[in-house]
Protein backbone atom coordinates (compact mmCIF):
# COMPACT_ATOMS: atom_id res chain seq x y z
CA UNK A 1 0.00 0.00 0.00
CA UNK A 2 1.28 3.45 -0.88
CA UNK A 3 2.67 5.50 2.01
CA UNK A 4 1.07 8.90 1.35
CA UNK A 5 3.60 10.92 3.36
CA UNK A 6 6.54 9.23 1.64
CA UNK A 7 4.82 9.67 -1.72
CA UNK A 8 4.43 13.41 -1.16
CA UNK A 9 8.07 13.69 -0.10
CA UNK A 10 9.10 11.79 -3.23
CA UNK A 11 7.14 14.28 -5.34
CA UNK A 12 9.05 17.13 -3.69
CA UNK A 13 12.42 15.45 -4.26
CA UNK A 14 11.45 14.76 -7.86
CA UNK A 15 10.60 18.46 -8.20
CA UNK A 16 14.18 19.26 -7.16
CA UNK A 17 15.41 16.79 -9.76
CA UNK A 18 13.41 18.52 -12.49
CA UNK A 19 14.51 21.97 -11.35
CA UNK A 20 18.19 21.06 -11.38
CA UNK A 21 18.33 19.12 -14.63
CA UNK A 22 19.80 20.66 -17.77
CA UNK A 23 16.54 21.29 -19.57
CA UNK A 24 15.26 24.83 -20.10
CA UNK A 25 11.71 25.58 -19.00
CA UNK A 26 9.82 28.77 -18.20
CA UNK A 27 8.54 27.42 -14.87
CA UNK A 28 12.13 27.32 -13.55
CA UNK A 29 12.54 31.10 -13.72
CA UNK A 30 10.82 31.95 -10.43
CA UNK A 31 12.32 29.22 -8.20
CA UNK A 32 15.75 29.87 -9.70
CA UNK A 33 15.35 33.55 -8.82
CA UNK A 34 14.73 32.73 -5.16
CA UNK A 35 17.33 29.98 -4.79
CA UNK A 36 19.97 32.11 -6.52
CA UNK A 37 20.23 34.11 -3.30
CA UNK A 38 22.22 31.14 -2.00
CA UNK A 39 24.52 30.80 -4.98
CA UNK A 40 24.48 30.07 -8.68
CA UNK A 41 24.03 26.66 -10.29
CA UNK A 42 21.65 25.37 -7.60
CA UNK A 43 24.32 25.61 -4.91
CA UNK A 44 21.73 25.40 -2.13
CA UNK A 45 21.04 21.78 -3.14
CA UNK A 46 24.74 20.91 -2.90
CA UNK A 47 25.23 22.29 0.60
CA UNK A 48 25.83 19.79 3.39
CA UNK A 49 23.00 21.18 5.53
CA UNK A 50 21.75 19.28 8.54
CA UNK A 51 18.77 21.54 9.22
CA UNK A 52 16.65 24.21 7.58
CA UNK A 53 17.82 26.40 10.47
CA UNK A 54 21.47 26.19 9.39
CA UNK A 55 21.17 29.33 7.26
CA UNK A 56 19.18 32.26 8.61
CA UNK A 57 17.98 33.53 5.24
CA UNK A 58 16.24 30.27 4.38
CA UNK A 59 13.20 31.41 6.35
CA UNK A 60 12.79 34.28 3.87
CA UNK A 61 11.98 31.86 1.06
CA UNK A 62 8.33 31.61 -0.06
CA UNK A 63 6.56 28.85 1.87
CA UNK A 64 6.43 26.39 -1.02
CA UNK A 65 10.17 26.58 -1.72
CA UNK A 66 10.96 26.50 1.99
CA UNK A 67 8.97 23.28 2.41
CA UNK A 68 10.70 21.78 -0.63
CA UNK A 69 14.08 22.57 0.92
CA UNK A 70 13.08 21.14 4.31
CA UNK A 71 12.07 17.90 2.61
CA UNK A 72 15.33 17.86 0.63
CA UNK A 73 17.41 18.27 3.78
CA UNK A 74 15.37 15.73 5.74
CA UNK A 75 15.98 13.06 3.12
CA UNK A 76 19.73 13.53 2.86
CA UNK A 77 19.84 15.97 -0.03
CA UNK A 78 23.33 17.41 -0.41
CA UNK A 79 24.59 15.62 2.68
CA UNK A 80 27.79 13.61 2.94
CA UNK A 81 29.27 11.27 5.47
CA UNK A 82 32.03 12.69 7.64
CA UNK A 83 35.03 13.04 5.29
CA UNK A 84 38.03 11.04 6.46
CA UNK A 85 40.58 11.82 3.75
CA UNK A 86 41.99 14.94 2.12
CA UNK A 87 40.15 14.36 -1.17
CA UNK A 88 36.71 14.31 0.41
CA UNK A 89 37.61 17.23 2.67
CA UNK A 90 38.64 19.43 -0.24
CA UNK A 91 35.42 18.57 -2.08
CA UNK A 92 33.25 19.82 0.79
CA UNK A 93 31.06 22.85 0.11
CA UNK A 94 32.08 25.39 2.75
CA UNK A 95 28.78 27.20 3.09
CA UNK A 96 25.99 25.82 5.25
CA UNK A 97 28.17 22.81 6.03
CA UNK A 98 27.18 20.91 9.15
CA UNK A 99 30.84 20.07 9.78
CA UNK A 100 32.16 23.62 9.35
CA UNK A 101 30.76 25.73 12.16
CA UNK A 102 31.79 28.56 14.43
CA UNK A 103 29.90 29.20 17.66
CA UNK A 104 27.56 26.40 16.63
CA UNK A 105 26.53 28.08 13.37
CA UNK A 106 27.32 27.20 9.78
CA UNK A 107 29.01 29.83 7.65
CA UNK A 108 27.66 31.72 4.67
CA UNK A 109 29.44 34.71 3.10
CA UNK A 110 27.39 35.74 0.09
CA UNK A 111 30.16 37.89 -1.44
CA UNK A 112 32.58 34.94 -1.25
CA UNK A 113 30.02 32.79 -3.03
CA UNK A 114 29.62 35.45 -5.74
CA UNK A 115 33.37 35.24 -6.36
CA UNK A 116 32.98 31.47 -6.85
CA UNK A 117 34.67 30.54 -3.59
CA UNK A 118 32.60 27.46 -2.91
CA UNK A 119 34.64 24.45 -1.85
CA UNK A 120 37.35 23.92 0.76
CA UNK A 121 39.64 23.34 -2.20
CA UNK A 122 39.06 26.97 -3.27
CA UNK A 123 40.65 28.42 -0.12
CA UNK A 124 43.61 26.07 0.31
CA UNK A 125 47.04 27.21 -0.85
CA UNK A 126 50.07 25.13 -1.89
CA UNK A 127 50.96 24.57 1.76
CA UNK A 128 47.58 23.09 2.55
CA UNK A 129 46.58 26.15 4.56
CA UNK A 130 43.86 28.78 4.31
CA UNK A 131 45.89 31.67 2.99
CA UNK A 132 45.33 35.41 3.28
CA UNK A 133 45.85 35.40 -0.50
CA UNK A 134 42.13 34.73 -0.67
CA UNK A 135 41.90 38.52 -0.50
CA UNK A 136 42.98 38.68 -4.14
CA UNK A 137 39.78 36.90 -5.17
CA UNK A 138 37.45 39.18 -3.25
CA UNK A 139 36.02 42.37 -4.70
CA UNK A 140 34.26 43.24 -1.47
CA UNK A 141 37.07 43.31 1.07
CA UNK A 142 35.20 44.70 4.06
CA UNK A 143 35.47 42.43 7.14
CA UNK A 144 37.60 39.93 5.24
CA UNK A 145 40.03 39.50 8.15
CA UNK A 146 37.25 38.57 10.58
CA UNK A 147 35.67 36.27 8.00
CA UNK A 148 38.97 34.55 7.27
CA UNK A 149 39.58 34.08 10.99
CA UNK A 150 36.09 32.58 11.43
CA UNK A 151 36.67 30.18 8.55
CA UNK A 152 40.00 29.02 9.96
CA UNK A 153 38.39 28.51 13.34
CA UNK A 154 35.41 26.66 11.85
CA UNK A 155 37.40 24.02 9.98
CA UNK A 156 37.87 20.89 12.13
CA UNK A 157 41.45 20.44 13.33
CA UNK A 158 41.53 16.89 11.98
CA UNK A 159 40.77 18.28 8.52
CA UNK A 160 43.55 20.83 8.73
CA UNK A 161 46.07 18.13 9.62
CA UNK A 162 45.05 16.03 6.62
CA UNK A 163 45.12 19.05 4.29
CA UNK A 164 48.71 19.83 5.34
CA UNK A 165 49.89 16.34 4.44
CA UNK A 166 52.39 16.03 1.58
CA UNK A 167 50.02 14.03 -0.61
CA UNK A 168 47.27 16.61 -0.23
CA UNK A 169 49.59 19.51 -1.04
CA UNK A 170 50.79 17.92 -4.28
CA UNK A 171 47.50 16.55 -5.57
CA UNK A 172 45.00 18.30 -7.80
CA UNK A 173 41.36 17.61 -7.06
CA UNK A 174 38.65 17.45 -9.69
CA UNK A 175 35.31 18.46 -8.26
CA UNK A 176 32.10 17.47 -10.01
CA UNK A 177 28.91 19.49 -9.77
CA UNK A 178 26.62 16.48 -9.29
CA UNK A 179 23.68 16.90 -6.95
CA UNK A 180 23.42 13.92 -4.62
CA UNK A 181 21.40 12.44 -1.81
CA UNK A 182 23.06 10.59 1.05
CA UNK A 183 20.48 8.28 2.55
CA UNK A 184 20.63 4.90 4.29
CA UNK A 185 24.43 5.06 4.12
CA UNK A 186 24.45 5.30 0.30
CA UNK A 187 24.97 8.08 -2.23
CA UNK A 188 22.46 8.62 -5.03
CA UNK A 189 23.02 10.91 -8.02
CA UNK A 190 19.75 12.79 -8.33
CA UNK A 191 19.84 12.92 -12.11
CA UNK A 192 20.14 9.13 -12.36
CA UNK A 193 17.29 7.99 -10.14
CA UNK A 194 13.64 7.81 -11.14
CA UNK A 195 10.57 8.75 -9.14
CA UNK A 196 9.83 5.19 -8.01
CA UNK A 197 13.37 4.74 -6.71
CA UNK A 198 13.16 8.06 -4.84
CA UNK A 199 9.97 6.83 -3.19
CA UNK A 200 11.59 3.51 -2.24
CA UNK A 201 14.63 5.31 -0.80
CA UNK A 202 12.37 7.38 1.42
CA UNK A 203 10.41 4.31 2.49
CA UNK A 204 13.61 2.51 3.49
CA UNK A 205 14.76 5.51 5.51
CA UNK A 206 11.52 5.58 7.50
CA UNK A 207 12.32 2.75 9.88
CA UNK A 208 9.30 3.23 12.11
CA UNK A 209 5.75 2.83 10.84
CA UNK A 210 3.48 5.76 11.65
CA UNK A 211 0.73 5.30 14.16
CA UNK A 212 -2.56 4.83 12.30
CA UNK A 213 -5.98 5.25 13.88
CA UNK A 214 -9.04 4.40 11.83
CA UNK A 215 -12.53 4.24 13.32
CA UNK A 216 -11.14 4.41 16.87
CA UNK A 217 -8.81 1.45 16.39
CA UNK A 218 -5.03 1.56 16.33
CA UNK A 219 -2.47 -0.13 14.14
CA UNK A 220 -1.57 -2.58 16.90
CA UNK A 221 -5.17 -3.78 17.12
CA UNK A 222 -5.30 -4.46 13.40
CA UNK A 223 -1.86 -5.98 13.10
CA UNK A 224 -0.81 -4.24 9.87
CA UNK A 225 -1.03 -0.91 8.12
CA UNK A 226 -3.14 -2.35 5.30
CA UNK A 227 -5.64 -4.05 7.64
CA UNK A 228 -6.11 -0.80 9.55
CA UNK A 229 -7.68 0.76 6.47
CA UNK A 230 -10.12 -2.08 5.75
CA UNK A 231 -13.21 -0.60 7.51
CA UNK A 232 -12.73 2.72 5.71
CA UNK A 233 -12.20 1.03 2.35
CA UNK A 234 -15.32 -1.08 2.84
CA UNK A 235 -17.30 2.12 3.32
CA UNK A 236 -15.85 3.45 0.07
CA UNK A 237 -16.90 0.28 -1.73
CA UNK A 238 -20.44 0.61 -0.41
CA UNK A 239 -20.62 4.20 -1.63
CA UNK A 240 -19.19 3.26 -5.02
CA UNK A 241 -22.21 1.14 -5.96
CA UNK A 242 -24.08 4.22 -7.16
CA UNK A 243 -21.02 5.90 -8.66
CA UNK A 244 -21.09 6.47 -12.44
CA UNK A 245 -17.72 6.49 -14.19
CA UNK A 246 -17.73 9.38 -16.64
CA UNK A 247 -15.12 10.50 -19.15
CA UNK A 248 -13.70 12.81 -16.48
CA UNK A 249 -13.07 9.78 -14.25
CA UNK A 250 -11.15 8.11 -17.08
CA UNK A 251 -9.13 11.27 -17.71
CA UNK A 252 -8.18 11.60 -14.04
CA UNK A 253 -7.13 7.97 -13.92
CA UNK A 254 -4.88 8.43 -16.93
CA UNK A 255 -3.33 11.60 -15.48
CA UNK A 256 -2.41 9.72 -12.31
CA UNK A 257 -0.83 6.91 -14.31
CA UNK A 258 1.19 9.39 -16.34
CA UNK A 259 2.15 11.92 -13.65
CA UNK A 260 1.69 10.06 -10.34
CA UNK A 261 -0.56 12.78 -8.88
CA UNK A 262 -3.56 14.98 -9.65
CA UNK A 263 -5.31 17.87 -7.91
CA UNK A 264 -9.12 17.84 -7.81
CA UNK A 265 -10.72 21.26 -7.34
CA UNK A 266 -14.30 22.47 -7.33
CA UNK A 267 -17.16 23.73 -5.20
CA UNK A 268 -18.40 21.81 -2.18
CA UNK A 269 -20.71 18.89 -2.92
CA UNK A 270 -19.76 18.27 -6.53
CA UNK A 271 -18.24 14.85 -5.77
CA UNK A 272 -14.50 15.39 -5.41
CA UNK A 273 -14.15 13.05 -2.42
CA UNK A 274 -16.30 10.32 -3.96
CA UNK A 275 -14.35 10.55 -7.21
CA UNK A 276 -11.02 10.32 -5.37
CA UNK A 277 -12.24 7.29 -3.41
CA UNK A 278 -13.32 5.49 -6.56
CA UNK A 279 -10.05 6.33 -8.28
CA UNK A 280 -8.24 4.76 -5.32
CA UNK A 281 -10.45 1.66 -5.47
CA UNK A 282 -9.85 1.33 -9.20
CA UNK A 283 -6.07 1.57 -8.78
CA UNK A 284 -6.04 -0.81 -5.82
CA UNK A 285 -8.37 -3.60 -6.89
CA UNK A 286 -8.44 -3.43 -10.68
CA UNK A 287 -4.99 -2.05 -11.51
CA UNK A 288 -3.19 -3.85 -8.67
CA UNK A 289 -1.43 -0.72 -7.40
CA UNK A 290 -0.95 -0.51 -3.62
Automatic annotation (TrEMBL):
<dbReference type="InterPro" id="IPR049050">
    <property type="entry name" value="nSTAND3"/>
</dbReference>
<dbReference type="InterPro" id="IPR027417">
    <property type="entry name" value="P-loop_NTPase"/>
</dbReference>
<dbReference type="Pfam" id="PF20720">
    <property type="entry name" value="nSTAND3"/>
</dbReference>
<feature type="domain" description="Novel STAND NTPase 3">
    <location>
        <begin position="243"/>
        <end position="285"/>
    </location>
</feature>
<protein>
    <recommendedName>
        <fullName>Novel STAND NTPase 3 domain-containing protein</fullName>
    </recommendedName>
</protein>
Amino acid sequence: MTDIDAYIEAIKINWVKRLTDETCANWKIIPTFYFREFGENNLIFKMNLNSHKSLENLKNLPTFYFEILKCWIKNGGGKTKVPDNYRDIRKQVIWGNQYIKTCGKSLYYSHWVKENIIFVNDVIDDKGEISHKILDKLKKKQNWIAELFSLRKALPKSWIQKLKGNISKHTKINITQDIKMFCNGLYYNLDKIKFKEIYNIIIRSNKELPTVATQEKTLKEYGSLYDADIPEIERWRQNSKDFIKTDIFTDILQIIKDNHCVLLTGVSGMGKTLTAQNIALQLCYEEGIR
